[in-house]
Design a protein that fits this description.
single chain, alpha+beta, Vanillyl-alcohol Oxidase, Chain A, domain 3, nine-stranded antiparallel beta sheet, 10 helices, 36% helix
Length: 296
């Protein structure tokens, strides 16, 4: 102990600075580890009642409330839309740590009376005899520059994305959108520009494609890329699709719902709800899985 004190006195402020940096590094690493992956996931299938004459923006704001509620637990969560490798129905899922299931169940039912929240096993979109492709969404410019949102544009910017799910073939094809979200770091918050005055999240947005041929997989990827053009506007950021270089690692991350820091986007709750939200009653997209009418 005396030797340590002598060293600290000898080196003074420089040593204290180094120690402070080391402790800060350890703290940041601990926080990242906390958010890297929940100990266990529970997948919840969400079915909403197909209500009529409800305002689109009001419905989108309900999803924003849900996102902020999920973020309040300061744990990684996943928002998902999928068409399985057999079937045509478009299903919506939320995956959360198991200790949050009851809280999320209650919140969804409170926000959408008549909704159904079903615990389910992990689903698959992959055809073992087909071709699979993993792509992700990235911001063209610095994340401090916002994208055009559904609230600003006055129309549902998620619909062009969702429309691609309705084009998946009945057998042999599958498609999934997975959005991993967690609270931003202090650095991300400070560098978010005008966004820092709003609720913001650190995001991974992925799309997994399964098809019978490389041509069909590329066709689906191309159409998805085009769907994100609705977020572009003057003096606004834009979104584009990029292919994961290491497809094997990308698929493992997708299956495990593992956050990849190299693919991070920083989005406000409004921006996130413009990219993904639970289905609105005004949607004309066919094949969405709703609560059967006899249940409400």
């Amino acid at each position: 102990m005396e030797q340590i004190l002598v060293i600290m006195i000898s080196f003074g402020a420089p040593l204290l600075t180094v120690l402070a940096i080391v402790f800060l590094f350890i703290a940041i690493k601990a926080v990242r580890k906390q958010f890297s992956k929940p100990s266990s996931w529970q997948v919840l299938k969400i079915l909403l009642p197909p209500e009529d004459n409800k305002d689109l923006l009001s419905e989108i704001r309900l999803s924003m409330q849900l996102f902020n509620f999920l973020a309040s637990f300061k744990q990684l969560f996943s928002l998902e839309t999928a068409v399985h490798n057999v079937g045509e129905e478009i299903s919506f899922y939320i995956a959360v740590p198991k200790n949050l299931v009851d809280s999320i169940d209650k919140k969804v039912r409170d926000l959408w009376p008549g909704s159904s929240v079903q615990k389910t096993e992990n689903y698959t979109i992959f055809n073992e005899d087909g071709i699979s492709k993993l792509i992700y969404i990235k911001q063209k410019d610095n994340y401090s520059i916002p994208i055009q949102t559904a609230v600003e544009s006055g129309h549902d910017t998620f619909l062009p994305i969702l429309n691609n799910f309705s084009k998946v073939e009945l057998v042999g094809e599958g498609l999934a959108m997975q959005i991993l979200a967690k609270p931003v770091s202090i650095f991300e918050k400070k560098s978010a520009g005008s966004k820092k005055s709003k609720p913001i999240l650190s995001i991974n947005a992925r799309l997994a494609i399964s098809a019978m041929s490389p041509y069909r997989a590329e066709e689906l990827a191309h159409d998805l890329n085009a769907a994100f053009s609705s977020f572009s506007a003057p003096e606004r950021n834009s979104l584009r699709v990029a292919e994961s270089r290491n497809q094997k690692e990308a698929f493992l991350n997708f299956i495990d719902r593992k956050f990849d820091n190299s693919q991070t986007m920083i989005l406000t709750d409004e921006e996130l709800a413009s990219i993904w939200h639970l289905p609105s009653s005004s949607s004309e997209i066919p094949k969405i899985k709703w609560v059967p009418k006899r249940q409400f």
